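To: structure desk
From: M.T.
Subject: fold request, one chain
Message: Could you run this one when you get a chance? Sequence is below, nothing fancy, just the single chain.
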Amino acid sequence: MSPLCTARLELRPYRPSDAEDFFTLLDENRLRLQPAFPARVSTVQTLADARQVLETFNDDWRSGQLYVFGIWAPATGRYLGDISLKPNWANKITAEISYYLDAAAEGNGYAREAVRGALEFGFSVLQADRLLIRCRANNARSCAVAESVGFQLLPPRHRAWTMRPLRNDAIQYFLFKREDLPAVIS
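Reply: Done. Structure tokens follow.
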């Protein structure tokens, strides 16, 4: 898979040589990432764990279960974070986008740019009919990213017998495939 390139970023599948950067970012951001990415944080406790997870990501690419990209700033060579798409492979394909950035990379528009780059992959390569971003209700920045790239708020679903939302700590945004979406990959 060729990297997806935006104006300032390169999104690419992980390589074995990325293990140290991957581990360091997770280790330095462990407490901050724990609420939204508990499995990732708990699984990667050592550099050896990071290597194993990156191997799993490559297996997931081959099987079509999960497409994980490292986010890089080519101008500096700096590893900034991670973005993934998880398709459901139903008749109408929905792919959920998840992402995180190093704390030092936040506030620079990188998340917005990475999500825009992932749109092309989701709609063109995966042929998704809809993309979904699930944000924690207390993460205003992620909600703003979803809204800024055109995602719309998905009303909460309720349990029929209680009329309460299924989860009250997550907000979901969706974007349907449209022909008028600009190409952002160079």
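Reply (cont.): The beta strands are 4-5, 10-13, 67-73, 78-87, 94-101, 130-136, 152-154, 170-176. Let me know if you need anything else for the meeting.
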